[in-house]
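queue> pop job 88
queue> type: inverse folding (structure -> sequence)
queue> payload:
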């Protein structure tokens, strides 16, 4: 399966909505989109994983690389995910300590805005 990537801006925050599989074949597409968004000057980014069916280590690597990129600008990457199979990957790898994970885009935006 392919990966669909939709980018938008919500209240000044870059939002990436993913649908499909994030694997060795599709991860470069996500990496490219993350780089583009950072180059546009958006350093607080929400990545919506609600419609992601599968993610492998290359997908996780892109997320960690993106986090390093935004951290150099005092930014952050927040994830939206309620799917147990994807959350399990973040728990097993310990990345739940690295990425704040929210159950909705609205919650993540409120967190960035400090409300």
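queue> result:
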């Amino acid at each position: 399966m392919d990966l669909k990537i939709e980018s938008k801006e919500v209240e000044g925050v870059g939002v990436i909505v993913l649908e499909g599989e994030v694997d060795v074949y599709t991860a470069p597409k996500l990496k490219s989109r993350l780089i583009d968004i950072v180059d546009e000057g958006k350093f607080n980014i929400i990545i919506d994983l609600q419609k992601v069916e599968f993610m492998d280590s290359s997908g996780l690597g892109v997320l960690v690389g993106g986090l390093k990129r935004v951290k150099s600008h005092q930014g952050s990457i927040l994830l939206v995910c309620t799917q147990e199979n994807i959350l399990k990957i973040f728990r097993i790898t310990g990345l739940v300590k690295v990425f704040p994970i929210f159950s909705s885009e609205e919650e993540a935006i409120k967190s960035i805005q400090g409300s």
